[in-house]
């Protein structure tokens, strides 16, 4: 089945170039040229992935991202000319899964799109007997069918990347992961020292699952090495 992509880019020429490229990759592309139009299209039919420019008329990309994250974990890839480390950290902090700075090659963009969709769909069970229904650690329950995460009786809304990172730790409860290993396993890309990406996602995950994020009990920092689950 063809995957649907919502492309949110106010530059008509760039939008057309990206849309044509992705259609040649057998994606179904729906284009929006401002934030309000994008939100309406998203609410009408949730896509498999969103390509999102940050500088949009009517409703900014950041505000659109926050509104989508209130209701969905759909993979979101930011495409923006605002390529500083701070801009990337802010975008990822608001719930984006990946960030690609303009100008970029169409080869790189299509590779990122394929990887993001592959990561999001590989967590879907093939049948009722093909994978464990849930993962558990202390008060955390991670449901593999519904993607629900509960801390005790409280439901916690995670982005797709946060869900994947938590799943990685919960399926390897005694293992320490370096930042490079986490990036390679979750983003399926070379690391190149992308510490901001890992730091932001770990911080956001802690804010959602820890009672005291500054003194985490679930996601522990192993100084000079990386992170692990629990003690």
From TrEMBL:
<dbReference type="InterPro" id="IPR001867">
    <property type="entry name" value="OmpR/PhoB-type_DNA-bd"/>
</dbReference>
<keyword id="KW-0804">Transcription</keyword>
<keyword id="KW-0238">DNA-binding</keyword>
<dbReference type="InterPro" id="IPR039420">
    <property type="entry name" value="WalR-like"/>
</dbReference>
<feature type="domain" description="OmpR/PhoB-type">
    <location>
        <begin position="132"/>
        <end position="231"/>
    </location>
</feature>
<dbReference type="InterPro" id="IPR036388">
    <property type="entry name" value="WH-like_DNA-bd_sf"/>
</dbReference>
<keyword id="KW-0805">Transcription regulation</keyword>
<feature type="domain" description="Response regulatory">
    <location>
        <begin position="4"/>
        <end position="117"/>
    </location>
</feature>
<feature type="modified residue" description="4-aspartylphosphate">
    <location>
        <position position="53"/>
    </location>
</feature>
<protein>
    <submittedName>
        <fullName>Response regulator transcription factor</fullName>
    </submittedName>
</protein>
<dbReference type="Pfam" id="PF00486">
    <property type="entry name" value="Trans_reg_C"/>
</dbReference>
<keyword id="KW-0902">Two-component regulatory system</keyword>
<dbReference type="Pfam" id="PF00072">
    <property type="entry name" value="Response_reg"/>
</dbReference>
<feature type="DNA-binding region" description="OmpR/PhoB-type">
    <location>
        <begin position="132"/>
        <end position="231"/>
    </location>
</feature>
<dbReference type="InterPro" id="IPR011006">
    <property type="entry name" value="CheY-like_superfamily"/>
</dbReference>
<keyword id="KW-0597">Phosphoprotein</keyword>
<dbReference type="InterPro" id="IPR001789">
    <property type="entry name" value="Sig_transdc_resp-reg_receiver"/>
</dbReference>
């Amino acid at each position: 089945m063809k995957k649907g992509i919502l492309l949110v880019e106010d530059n008509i020429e760039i939008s057309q170039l990206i849309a044509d490229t992705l259609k040649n990759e057998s994606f179904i592309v729906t284009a929006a040229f401002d934030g309000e139009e994008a939100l309406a299209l998203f609410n009408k039919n949730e896509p498999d992935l969103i390509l999102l420019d940050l500088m949009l008329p009517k409703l900014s990309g950041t505000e659109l991202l926050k509104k989508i994250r209130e209701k969905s974990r759909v993979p979101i890839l930011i495409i923006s000319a605002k390529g500083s480390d701070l801009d990337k950290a802010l975008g990822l902090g608001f719930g984006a899964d990946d960030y690609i700075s303009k100008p970029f090659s169409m080869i790189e963009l299509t590779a990122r799109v394929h990887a993001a969709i592959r990561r999001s769909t590989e967590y879907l069970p093939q049948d009722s007997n093909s994978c464990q229904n849930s993962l558990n650690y202390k008060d955390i329950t991670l449901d593999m069918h519904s993607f629900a995460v509960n801390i005790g009786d409280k439901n916690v809304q995670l982005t797709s990347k946060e869900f994947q990172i938590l799943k990685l730790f919960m399926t390897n409860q005694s293992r320490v992961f370096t930042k490079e290993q986490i990036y390679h396993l979750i983003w399926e890309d070379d690391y190149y020292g992308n510490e901001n990406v890992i730091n932001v996602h770990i911080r956001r995950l802690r804010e959602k699952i820890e009672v005291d994020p500054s003194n985490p009990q679930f996601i522990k920092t192993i100084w000079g090495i990386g992170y692990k689950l629990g003690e």
